[in-house]
Structures are given as structure tokens and as C-alpha cells.
Design brief:
The complex is a heterodimer. Chain A has helices at residues 3-16, 18-29, 32-48, 59-84, 109-115, 121-130, 135-142, 146-171. By secondary structure, chain A is mostly helical. Chain A has one domain: PhyR, sigma-like (SL) domain (Butyryl-CoA Dehydrogenase, subunit A, domain 3, Up-down Bundle), CATH 1.20.140. Mean pLDDT of chain A is 78; it is low at 84-107.
Chain lengths: 172, 277
């Protein structure tokens, strides 16, 4: 395939996964503005590096892993900019990022509830339960051990179950 | 398959739900659930959390993706391969957060009583005010749904009145919708007119003009009558999954151009339509 045609096809594939990519980004950033910025950066990077995509497996997995990496870089930069100094790499994806529900574009209550979950839970739940990735695939995308995938997943499910109770009580 | 022995029960049952435990553990957990009330409650909570989470995450896909982003991807600078590899962050340490069983048990009682109805929807005699969990649908949501269905129809079912009956289309739709219009000639944009439909969107009659490009991609122009004084002319871009939309209001009517999200020239098309319709 000619490089230009290959590039066009890749861009088309990228556009087709945008809604899902944006959803995944939301689970990382937990606010719409950051998610949109992150998605844009990921797409630009994916296009310039599409030669690294071997076409095997799911494009989402490759893009998601890149998204996760870029977000970790971003929160590390933010930490430095706000005077926190360098960040221990072992803690980098546990940095506290304020879930700015007020700023979120989404007024939808379900969105707010999902985004209010502690960091790391929504991403695992999305990958495994919603999008059908295996534990191994989710662990590879998020760069976490499988044991962490398992514990986060069960915690996410119990949190979500508790949310049903909250909403049921509000309706009563 | 994972070895979950020694892990918290909710973690083990969660892995069981995903089919990520081996055969021996699966049998062990099934026997445990059969004889142990607490295990059964936890399993039900995990299942309920799954159902609620799936529904919630599905809502995220209904949010429009900025069309400007789509355009940047389609029209961005050419590929400029670099030899550097994608940066990988260091792995994080395992950190297990276990949900307290006591809370699980207390929540479960409420859950069983109240969750089912929430998940499957309101019952017939439920007088409680519905939760405002989703944004109200607009006529554009209806148009997106129509487009998703009709654009996949074969040629004979694509339209209600074909382009062969061109003379009938303008007076028919103008009188049905209450908006006078001139059928846009979009051949300069590479689109051939296929025909028209009359739809109902947002509770109002809507005219739908269907076009195809040489690749077979379907584009639609839809419009409906508005209340007097609602014209603003400003174009708004949005994206619904694989469908892109550009809408505007003009002369007491609302218009939208609909096409594949992968098309980078939708704005030019909308400009042409707005100038000629």
C-alpha cells in the first residue's frame, strides 16, 4: 500500500475510535477539558508514529496505551509546575487530580458519578467490563500488575453497586 | 487464568464473573456461593455494579466529539515518521484496595430492594419523578439515528421519493414542513442527489434530502420550521459516533448537514448548502 493511502486509512481508523478514545481519556483525566486536550495530543502523536502500529490486535489498545503514557507525563509536568518537584515514578499514576465536576462539560449525572470514582477504578472497569479486554490486556495498557487490575475491578464494581443504592435512595 | 486463592472474596468473585479463574477455582466459588449468603450477596452486588457501570459508560459514547478534532486528524500535516519509540512510563506498584465487607453487606440489603428497578427502568405504576440522568434528546439526536439507519439502506430503500421525481419533491416537502427551499445542487462538491424523505424529529416534520458521493457515502440535508425570530446563522459542529453534523438556523428554520465523521469537507458542504438552499 502506498504510504499516503496507508496514512489516510490510519486516520480514518483513528477517527472511528474517537468516541471510545475520548471516553477512555475521561476515565483518566476525569474532566472533559483535559480529556479533549489529551485526545488531541494522542491523535497527533499517533498520526506521526503510525508506522509503529503493526496492524495486529486492536487499534484501541495501542492508542489507549499511548493515551495513558501521555497522561502520566502530563500529571508529572503539572506536579513539577506546581512546585512539587520531581515525582517518584512509582507514584506517578496515583497523583491526585481534582475531579472538576463543575468544569465538566457533561451535566449528566451518570457521568459525574463515574468521574467521581477514585482514580484508576473507572479505567479498569471500562477496559475489562465494558470493552471486553482481558486482564492481561488491561494490565498492559495501564502498565499495572494483573493483581492490581483484579483488585481495582472488584472495587469499581462494588462502588458502582453502591451508586445504585445512592440513586435509589434519592428517588425514594 | 488467574490464581485468586488468598485474595479477598469480592476480588475472587469478580474474577469468577470474568471467567478469569481456573476450573478448580470456578467450582470452588460456585459451591461457596451456593451455600454462603454473604458470598451470594457479594456476587449479586458485583453483577449489579456491572450492569450499572455498563449503562453509565454507554452514555459517554453519546457525547458529541468536536468535529474540529476530526478535521485536524483528517487534514493534519503529512505523516512524518520518527524513529523514536513511544515513551513508556515505569510500572506502578501493586496497591490493593479492598472494599470493606461490612459496607458491602449493608449496601447489599438496599441494593437488592432497589437496584433492579433502576437498571431495567421504571415500572408501569412508578409515579416517582425520573432522575435526570441523561440530557434531553434534541431533533439532531433523532436525525443522527435516522441517518445511521437510512444511510445503510440499499439504493431502492435509501429514499422515499427518488431523484427521478424531482419536480414533486420541492412542493411536497415545502408544504409538509412549512419551509420554502431550493434543492441544492451539490455536484460541484462531488455529490449526486438521490431523493428525499419526510421524517419526524423532535416532534416536528423534517425534510431530508439525500446525496451520495462517488464512494457511496451518504450525506443528508435536513431542515424543519422554527419559531419566528430564532435565526442566528451560526454553525455548530458535533459528532455522534461515526456521524458528523453541522447545524444552523436561518430564516425561521433549522438546518443540519449530516455525513460520515471521517469526511473532512463537511464544513465546505454546509457552507454551500447554506448559501443555496
Amino acid at each position: 500500500m502506498r504510504p499516503a493511502a496507508e496514512s489516510n486509512e490510519f486516520r480514518r481508523d483513528l477517527v472511528s475510535v474517537l468516541p471510545k478514545l475520548r471516553r477512555f481519556a475521561m476515565t483518566l483525566t476525569r474532566n472533559a477539558a483535559d480529556a479533549d486536550d489529551l485526545v488531541q495530543e494522542v491523535c497527533e502523536r499517533a498520526i506521526t508514529r503510525n508506522h509503529l502500529w503493526n496492524g495486529e490486535g486492536r487499534l484501541e489498545s495501542w492508542i489507549y496505551a499511548m493515551t495513558r503514557n501521555l497522561w502520566i507525563d502530563e500529571i508529572r509536568k503539572r506536579k513539577v509546575r506546581t512546585g512539587g518537584g520531581t515525582v517518584d515514578a512509582s507514584e506517578q499514576d496515583e497523583l491526585s487530580v481534582e475531579a472538576s465536576g463543575e468544569k465538566a462539560v457533561y451535566a449528566n449525572q451518570l457521568h459525574k458519578m463515574i468521574l467521581s470514582m477514585p482514580e484508576g477504578l473507572a479505567s479498569v472497569f471500562l477496559l475489562v467490563n465494558v470493552e471486553g479486554h482481558s486482564y492481561r490486556e488491561a494490565a498492559d495498557i495501564l502498565k499495572i500488575p494483573i493483581g492490581t487490575v483484579m483488585s481495582r475491578l472488584s472495587t469499581a464494581r462494588m462502588r458502582l453497586a453502591a451508586m445504585i443504592t445512592e440513586t435509589t435512595e434519592r428517588r425514594a | 487464568m488467574q490464581n485468586t486463592k488468598g485474595l479477598a472474596l469480592e476480588v475472587r468473585l469478580s474474577a469468577y464473573l470474568d471467567g478469569e479463574v481456573n476450573e478448580a477455582e470456578r467450582k470452588e466459588l460456585e459451591q461457596l456461593v451456593a451455600r454462603d449468603d454473604e458470598a451470594r450477596l457479594i456476587l449479586e452486588m458485583l453483577k449489579a455494579g456491572n450492569a450499572f457501570g455498563n449503562k453509565a459508560f454507554e452514555e459517554f459514547l453519546h457525547d458529541p466529539v468536536p468535529l474540529s478534532l476530526v478535521r485536524r486528524i483528517k487534514q493534519g500535516p503529512g505523516v512524518n515518521p520518527k524513529s523514536e519509540r513511544v515513551v513508556s512510563a515505569a510500572p506502578r506498584p501493586a496497591r490493593t484496595r479492598l472494599w470493606p465487607r461490612a459496607l458491602a453487606a449493608s449496601v447489599a440489603l438496599l441494593l437488592i430492594g432497589g437496584s433492579t428497578g433502576f437498571i431495567i427502568g421504571k415500572t408501569g405504576n412508578d409515579d416517582a419523578a425520573p432522575m435526570n440522568v441523561a440530557a434531553a434528546r434534541t431533533w439532531l439526536d433523532d436525525i443522527a439515528d435516522y441517518h445511521r439507519i437510512y444511510s445503510r439502506q440499499t439504493a431502492e430503500h435509501l429514499v422515499e421519493v427518488s431523484a427521478a421525481d424531482l419536480d414533486r419533491i420541492e412542493p411536497w416537502l415545502a408544504s409538509s414542513v412549512g419551509v420554502n427551499f431550493k434543492l441544492p445542487d451539490l455536484t460541484a462538491q462531488g455529490l449526486a442527489f438521490e431523493g428525499a424523505r419526510l421524517l419526524v424529529a423532535g416532534g416536528k416534520p423534517v425534510a431530508q434530502l439525500m446525496y451520495k458521493n462517488e464512494d457511496g457515502d451518504v450525506f443528508a440535508i435536513c431542515f424543519l420550521k422554527n419559531k419566528p425570530g430564532t435565526s442566528d446563522g451560526k454553525m455548530t459542529e458535533s459528532m455522534r459516533d461515526d456521524i458528523a453534523m453541522i447545524s444552523w438556523q436561518k430564516a425561521d428554520a433549522s438546518y443540519v448537514v449530516v455525513g460520515p465523521s471521517a469526511d473532512a469537507n463537511l464544513q465546505l458542504l454546509a457552507d454551500a448548502v447554506s448559501a443555496t438552499i
